Amino acid sequence: MILIKNALIVPFYQEMEVIDNLHYDILIHEERIVMIEKKLDLDIAIKALGLEEAAPFIETINAAGALVAPGFVDIHVHFRDPGYTDKEDIESGVRTAARGGYTSVVMMANTNPCPDNTKDLADIVMRGQKADINVYTCANVTIGGKGREIVDMEALAIAGAVGFSDDGMPLLDEVLVREVFQRAAQLGIPVALHEEDPAYIEKDENGINSGWISSKLGIKGSKREAEITMVERDLRIAEETGATVIFQHLSTAEAVELIRQAKKTNDRIFAEVTPHHFSLTEEAILSKGTMAKMNPPLRTEKDRLAIIAGLADGTIDIIATDHAPHTAADKAKPLLEAPSGIIGLETALSLVMRELVMPGHLSLTDLVYKMSVNPAKAFKLAAGEVKVGMTADLVIFNPTATRKIGKFYSKSANSPFVGETMPGLVRYTIAKGKIVYARNKKHKPKGEIPPPL
After folding, report:
1. Which has the closest alpha carbon to 430: 10, 111, 49, 32?
2. CB–CB of 406/383 below 8 Å?
3. Contact at 8 Å (CB) between 67 and 399?
4. How many CB atoms lie within 10 A of CB 439?
5. pLDDT tens figures, 317-349
C-alpha cells in the first residue's frame, strides 16, 4: 500500500471542486487508487476499506513541492526486442521509461522477427505484460514491413496489437493504404504512419534535411516534400475511409498546416511530434554530427516554430519520443553511414519544460494532455487519469528542479543533449500500484511522514 501526501494533481479528474494549489492525499492498494481525499485520515480510511492487514506495510511519499500527474504515455518507442538487443531490450527499455516518468509505452514493429504474425506478436505481448510498466505493441501493417502484402489485421488485433505501423518504412501504394484504412476503421484500431516518400530523398542521404546545411556538407539530403506529399495523400484517404490515423513525428510547417485544416472536419486524426523536432534545427548536424541525424530530419527554424505553434493551438495532440537506441559503434560511423535516431525517454520531460512550458507556449496541464491524456486516447489505452478505481499509474515530478544530462538507464547513450543542464526532474514513477522508479528514498512506513520532495 502506498500513501501519497500533499499531492497537487495536474490535471485533476475527480468530480469535486477544483481549487488552485489545493493538495490531496492519494491512497493506493494493490494496483489501484482506492481513495483521494483532502487531509485523508489514514486510520479511518483503512478501516472503511477493510485493509487492516495491509496497514503495517504502507509506504508514505510526501509530494509537497512536486506535482502528481497521470503517468506519461509514449506511443512511439523502439525497444529493439527481439533482434537488436545490444541496443535495447524490453527490460532495459522499461527501466529507461520509468526513469522518464512513463508508465505506458507502445513499441514499434521494426524488430527481427517482426510482429507481422500472431506467433511473434504473442511473444512480444506476453513479455510486455510481465513488465513493471504497461508495455503495448503495434503489429506491422505489411508482411515484413516491406509495404507490399497486408498482414492479417483481424487476427493480430485479437492477439493483442493496439495498433498497426510499419514505422521506419512508408506505405507507398495508395491502393494498399486505402484497404488498410478501411480494415482498421472496421476494427476500431489506429494506424500510425511514417510519412517519408523516398522519391524525394537522395539515396543513402536520409536523416539530413535538404537545405543549406546539406549543401555545406556537399550532399542533397531529404527534401521536405517527402513528408508533405504523403501527409496530404493520407489525410484525404483517412477522411474518405473513417480510419483513425496517427501522423508520426511531424517535421515540416506545411505538414502541420495540413493537419490543422484536416482537423476542422475530421476528429479521428492525431498528430505527434518529438522533443528533438521542437528543440533543434538542421544546424545541430554541424555541432552534434550523427547524434543529430534522424528520420525525419531536423529541419529549419521556421519548421521548429511551426511545430511549437501547432502544439500550442492543439493541432498537434501528442508528444512522443521516437526513442531509438543505437550502439556507440553505430553512431561513430561516418555521417552517411551511421543509423538515424536518438534516445528520448529520459530527456523528454526536461525538453518539454525548457522549450514549451517555461517560455509560455504550454501550461503544465497542456503538458499532461500532450504526454499522457491524448496519447492514451489515440490508442484507446486505460491511462491518462488520476481517479479512484483506476490503475495507479502516476508520475511525481518537480517541473523546475534542474539536472545535468549524463548517465542513462538505457543501454544506449545516443543523445545530442548529453552534458546540458535542464529543468524537469522525475522524483517517483508508480506503475501498476508499485514504485518502479525513485530518485530518492524518502518514502517510509506508516506513522513517519517524510520531508517534502
Report:
1. 32
2. no
3. yes
4. 17
5. 999 999 999 999 999 999 999 999 999 999 999
Residue pair 250/310 in contact by the 8 Å Cβ criterion: yes
- At what angle are helices 253-262 and 301-312 packed, to 10 degrees? 20
- The one catalytic residue in 120, 132, 322, 393 is 322
Active site residue 167: no
pLDDT one-digit tens code per residue, 30-83: 999 999 998 899 999 999 999 888 777 889 999 999 999 999 999 999 999 999
- Residue bearing cell 510482429: 115
CA 195, 78, 143, 202 torsion-angle sign: positive
Contacts of 252 (CB under 8 A, 6+ apart): 224, 227, 228, 296, 299, 303, 306
C-alpha of 401 from chain center = 22
Closest by alpha carbon to 425, among 385, 394, 396? 396
Q: Which amino acid, residue 383? A: A
pTM of the predicted model as reported, rounded to 2 decimal places: 0.96
Neighbouring C-beta atoms of residue 179, cutoff 10 Å: 14
d(Cα 171, Cα 191) in Å, to the nearest integer? 11
